[in-house]
Amino acid sequence: MPRSSFVSDFLLRYIPAIFSIALTTALLFFMRGILDTPIIALLYLLPVGASASVWGLGAGIVAALSAFLSFNYFFISPHFTLTVHSPSDLVVLFVFLVVAVVLSQLVGRAREGQALAVEKARLTEIESRAKVLEESDRMKSALLSSVSHELRTPLATIKAATTSLRSGEVKWESKARQELLEAIEDETDHLNLLVGNLLNMSRIEANALKPERQWNLLPEIAGSVVARMHHPLEEHQIIVEIPEDLPLVPVDYSQMEQVFTNLINNSFKYAPAGTTIRIRAEKEGANIVRVQVENEGPPVPADDLDRIFEKFHRITAADRITGTGLGLSICKGIIEAHGGKIWAENLPGGFAIIFILPLSMDGKLAPEPPRESET
Amino acid sequence: MSTAPHILVIDDEPQILRALKTILGEKKFKVTPAANGEEGLALAAANPPDIVILDLGLPDIDGFEVCSRLREWTQCPIIVLSVRESERDKVAALDKGADDYLVKPFGIEELLARVRVALRHAGGTKGSKETKITAGAITIDLAWHIVTRNGEEIKLTATEYKLLAYLAANAGRVLTHQAILTHVWDPADADHVEYLRVYMRQLRKKLEADPERPEFIITEPGVGYRFLAD
User: Which strands make up the sheet holding B51-54, listed edge to edge?
Assistant: First the structure.
C-alpha cells in the first residue's frame, strides 16, 4: 500500500473509529454505576459495527481492538489496568474480542460487497452506453450510405441536364430544353427538402425540435403544401377535405408543412398512378383534432405498421423506391413534439397515416375575436 | 430613375456574389459586391446604394448587426438573403429594420420581384402615393375606402377593410404578425395571432377564388403576410 494512501486511510478511517470508541467509553464510564459488565460489552459492539459499516473492515478491526482495550482498562477490575483477575472476566473479554472482530469483518465485507455491486452496476452502465454509441454509430453509417445515395441521384440528373444544355446540342427554343431546365429545378427542390429532413432528424435526435406553436388554420397549411407540389396531376390527384368550421389549431406552421409534405410524398411513392390522395381532418371530442392522409396504395403487413415510423425503415427494397426512410420518423418526431400521436392503418382499398393533435394551448382553446358587421 | 439602380450585395460566399453580379448586371443593375460586414458598411457609406442584399452569416459581424448599423443613417431597402429558415431569425431580421427576407436556395424571379417591390416603396416615400391598388380582378381604392371585384363592390367589415388597406398599401412587402396587429388592432393586441387568422380567413373567403390556395394574400409561415398586387 503506498504511504500516502496509508496516511489518508489512517486519518479518514482509523482516527474516527478510535474516536467513536473513546466517545462510547466516556458515555459508558459516566453510566458505569447502572450498567452491568455484559451490558457494557454489548454496548461496545455498537460503535464497532458502526465503524466497520461506515469506514470499512480495517476501521472495524481497529475499533474492535480499541474497544477491547478500553473495556479492559476502564470496566474490568482491577480498574485502570490492563490486567484481569477473575477468570469469568477473562472469558467475557475473550468472547468480546472474538465477537467484535467477527462483527466488524461481517459488516465490513458486506460494505465492500455493496461497493463491488455499485462498481459492477457502473461497469454495466458503461457497457450499455458503449452499446448505445455503437448502435448510434451503426445508424450514422446507415444514414451516410442512404444519404449519399439519395444525394447523388438528383445530382446526377442536374449534372446530366446542365452538361447537355452546355453542349450546344439542345436547341434554344426546344421542348427538350424546357424539360431539362424543369428537371434541374425539381431536383434542386428535392435536394433542399432532403437537407431540411436531415436537419430536422438531427434536431429530433438531440431533443432540440421545439415547435413554435401559434394558432393556425389547418386547411391553409395543407393547401399551401398541395399548391407547392410539382407533381403531375395525371399521376395523383390530391383532395383536401377539411371542414370550414374546424377551430384554429396550435401548431408550428413550418413543421406541420413538413409533416404534410412528407406524408404526401410518401403517398406519391407507394400509391399507384391515377389514384387519389385525400387529406381529411375532423374534430374529435372537445380537445382533439384528427387528421388522416389516405391513399389507394397497397396494404402494409400488420407487423410493419409500427415499424414504418422507425428511421431508415422501408417496407420495400431500397433500390425500388427512393428515399432516405426518414420521412415518417420525422413526422412522428414533429407530431409527438406537439403532444400528439401518429399511427398507420390499412383501409379497405387503401392505406392511411393518421395523427391526432391537441386543440388547446396552455390549457386554453383558441380565443375568438370580437364579431362585427359589414358596413 | 435616370441612372441604373445601385445594389450592394453583402455575402461571404463567392459563388453567390458571382451569380448575383452576373444576373443582376444582366438586368441593368449596378452591383457592388462585399465579402464581409465591415466592408459592406464601408462601401455603403462611401457610395450609398439604392438597395442592400444582405446575408446573415457573415465572417466578421452578424448580419443583424449590419442591419441595425445601416438603419442608424439610411432608410434604403434591405433584403436579407440567408440559409437560416427559422421564423425566429426572419422576425428578428425584420425587427432590426430589414424590409424583406428570402431563404436560400431562392428562385431568381422571386428575388427580382422583391427588388422591384423594394425600389417601388423606396421611391414611393418621396413622391405621391398610389391610392388605387389592383390585384387581378380586385381593386382597392384607399381614398374612397371601396373594394371591388370586376367593378362590383365587396362588402367588408371595418376591421377587414383596415386590414386589407394596410396590406395593400404595403403590397409586395412582408408584414409581421406584430406589425399588422399593432397597426390594425392595438399594440395591446400584438400577441393575438388568432384574431389575424380568423380575419384573414374571412378576407380570403371574400377576395380569393380558392381561399385555400390564395393568390393575393400570401402567408409567410410563422412570420406574417404579404399582399401581392399587379
Answer: B30-34, B6-10, B51-54, B78-82, B100-103
